[in-house]
Amino acid sequence: MATVTTAPRWFSSARLAALLLLGGAGLTGGCTPNVPAQAQSEPDLHDEARARGVDYINCSGSASKDYILEANGAGVALFDLGADGDLDLAFAQGLARTQDLLDPALGTDIVLYENDGRGYFRRLPGPGLRGWWTGLVSGDLDNDGDDDLVVGGFGSSVVLLQEQAGDQAAPESAVLVRATELTPPSTTQTAPPWTTSLAVLDANRDGVLDLYVTQYLDLDPRRLPQGSLGKAPLDVPCEWKGAAVYCGPLGLNAQTDRLLLGRGDGSFVNASERLQGLVPAFGLGVHAFDADQDGDDDIFVANDSQPNFLWINDGTGTFVDGALALGVAYGAEGRAQAGMGVASGDVNRDGALDLVVTNFSDEPTEMYAGGARGFTRLTHRYALGRETRALLSWGCHLLDFDGDGWLELVSVNGHVYPQADLPDTGTRYGQPVTRWALGPQPKAVLLPPRAKDSIFAPAVGGRGSAVGDLNQDGRPDLVVVRIDAPASVGMNTEGTMHARLSVRLLGPDQPVTNSQSGNTPRRTPRDGSGATCIVVVKDTAGAEHALLAETRRAVGFQSSSTPWLHFGLGTSTRYESLIIRWPSGAVERLPGGPANRALTVREGSGILDTRPFQAP
Amino acid sequence: MKLYLTCVLWALTFASNPLDKPSSTLQQLRSAYELDLIPAATALARTTLADPQAAPELRAAAALVLAQSGALDTARRGCAGDTLVERLARARIALEQEDDPQTALRLLGAATAPREPSVRDADSAEAWLLCGRALGRAGSLQAAEPFLTRGLELDRHHLDAPKAHALLLSAALERGDTRLAPLRAETARQVAQWHALWKARRLQALRRPAEPLPRIGLAELWLAVNEPQRALEPLEDWLAGVDQPRSDVRVLALSGECLRRLGQRAAARERLEVARALEPKRSETRYFQALLALDANDLSLAKSELEAVCSDPAAVDGRLLRAHLDLARLLWDTGAHEDARTRHARYRELGGNEPLTPAPR
């Protein structure tokens, strides 16, 4: 039986409830290391891409990476095509050479795969795009109850709406129809717009999804920079550690991000003026989350070699950049870092979302603890400085892959410069995907690959990545785009001794229209974007703790992950209760139940569906 | 006159000639570390550490290069001595490569509350700064503050200065000091920008040793922070490095100005005269000569030169902005108040924001 309360802002009631809950559970630290030895002998995430039918090979320009566009690779989206309840795949794709952009005939399509429901895939015809595609994000953009897709690219970005969805017997009948061009209608730039990552969010809480479009830099394919930038003799050589490399981003012109408000039909209106003080920046990663715990969607943007943005929402969809004041604009010692990917999660189980931002080599992957007064840097407390220094990291995830109840950090790594393989650079071009356990021990513990076919084994550079339960066995799997190489699909087989819970949060099942008036009451988007779930769990000693996660698609770098929330319950066989904070402001408390279930919850309707996990 | 110029230029050439010979090992290692040109210097660093006679300064510089390349053990072993420079290098390695602030603090003998903040080597800016950084890294921003402040007092242009200013800003933000934080943010921004430019110019000078412009840029950066001696060095380097007499009026004029600021008026006059003879109408040279005349209290000469500079079309250049103010103030001091106001208005029009009469100190 669900109880529903409506508050003007959930902050006062639910936040307090969560804090009391955590306080009552005695979660004030003092954890002791307790990594089960058994876990170390288990397999982890096997790369089964080929066996499962995923034959995507990334193409990202020349192997020598002569131009900056070739270095960034592509993203991947996990989304439900055909509304049959499983996660299908969409990969962005590039071209063989940057110069090929000058020939429209050489444009490429995105690559789609359909899931058979057990995590085996069949390649589908693409939607017929032509271009160099970079980032992807999924969400129900037209409020018709199914997943749509936004594809970002160099030159143009498009919205693909899913049509004819809902026929579970024939998912192949679902098609992605090109609906909207996101390319600015007029621009004074001579270079094409270059979109990297995209995020869906509900900026103004009207129940309609909006878009944050991250832009990178001006690159004119007719005049590609090489050798040095600027006018001789005060030109600056394009060098890294003394080796000649491609030029940029520093020395090239940054582009300006955009905020687009949804109209509810898959079209958008430019509302970038709501980003107050917006300046051009080399944007690479974007993640919407509730940074200041006030119940609305804020936006973190990882900028390359420039201060990051943290757009703080005033609750109406107007934003100011709070990155400097909240302590996430720069590295620990004031240097603007080369931010790539970003993710959030409650690492320390204190009821506030923490933040992780991946960076360049010689810069740490930064981790920040969320709190009432901004963010506190945890990077060095967790020894991530030392752990990540040699890595150049892109996609990232804070997720409990092994189900022990503590989040892990996964970062997808790979250097941008093939010259990294020259002697004495302190790093390498090809780098493995890495994973660290972030609890209960006080420092990050690297989890090495446990088998040759582990997704964590090969030192092949990755870029975009997405997580989701591909075979519906309750364990989140990991899909990685490797640059100029076959993609990896890491099927999660670990944590067999741990119980889990998967939760899908959905907004009211009614179409929303007229999103622009500003007078409508706060609503939850139909696909549940922005909804937060707190799972209360009792451990074997009887102590309670709370696990928190937010429904967010744009995670990591240029990629889109599952809308399902995955919780590891450790050795508990049940959960005690669920607390759901809806973007509308409502808070629901649902009674506990057995573990190892996938629950679908709709706002105001309680649990719609409970089903056991499939056998892997 | 020509003969005189030739003599002066030859004299400049043969006074010293550092660009004709490789820079010292220490310079090479330090430049490699500071400009992140590590792979080019690792062989030299290994050779250096293999030499048991190598001085501690060399060992320290070599260790930093090797640590940056990933050879941490070799680096640590190579500078295991107890001299200050070796401990500084090991502390830096611990902090920057190993995320180990406690080792850095121990190596530098840092003491914090409840005792007075102190380090073993109290005269070393770097020791204070590294300890401040280590405390910041350990999450003790408030404890870091006096260490960083002391370090910056000892050397405000230290390589770690941008980091120190950023940490000072973080400390102000952490304790919610809304008065100090914006000031520190602006200082941190300016210092970071200065250091970024300084590194870029050094790299340009290294890559194009024959080009005067990067050296001029370096000198201007140093002059902007009132360090004429450090400004003079890259210019003298360039002048001494030419293999035949040649001229660059910009280098000559700017080096003259550096000498003036150092109080070496005769040498400054000589250098500026050479520059003036090479390009008589160049406003920048005339402006520096006017400043020299002001120093010598030759107000008449100063006034005529400043008037010439300010009436030249080139006077709208930002580099000559101050000439308008200097002229206005000179006129004011000599009682020509109306003219002074007019000149000051022109100065404001061009973007200046200083008052006509300097605030009393």
Report a brief summary of the structure.
The complex is a heterodimer of chains A (616) and B (361). With 616 residues, chain A is mainly beta. Helices cover 4% and strands 35% of the residues of chain A.
Could you explain how this protein is built, in words?
The complex is a heterodimer of chains A (616) and B (361). Chain A is mainly β and 616 residues long. In chain A, 4% of the residues lie in helices and 35% in strands. Chain A is built from three helices and 42 strands. In chain A, the strands form eleven sheets. Chain A has a five-stranded antiparallel β-sheet with strand order 1-40-39-36-37, with helices on one face. A five-stranded mixed β-sheet of chain A has the order 19-23-22-21-20, with no helix packed on it. In chain A, strand 25 and strand 26 form a beta hairpin. Chain A is globular and about 70 Å long. With 361 residues, chain B is mainly α. Chain B is 69% helix and 0% strand. Chain B has helices at residues 2-15, 25-34, 42-50, 56-68, 72-78, 84-96, 101-107, 125-137, 141-154, 161-174, 180-207, 212-224, 228-241, 249-261, 265-278, 283-295, 299-311, 321-333, 337-349. In chain B, helix 2 (25-34) packs parallel to helix 4, helix 6 (84-96) runs parallel beside helix 8 (125-137) and helix 14 runs parallel beside helix 16. Chain B is globular, with a radius of gyration of 24 Å. Chain B starts with a helix and ends in a 12-residue tail after the last helix. The A-B interface holds A 233-237, 239, 241-243, 324-325, 327, 330, 332-335, 364, 373-374, 376-377, 380-381, 383-386, 389-390, 422-427 and B 36-40, 42, 68-71, 97-101, 133, 136-139, 162-163, 165-167, 169-170, 173, 176, 185, 188, 192, 200, 203-204, 207-208, 211, 213-214, 217.
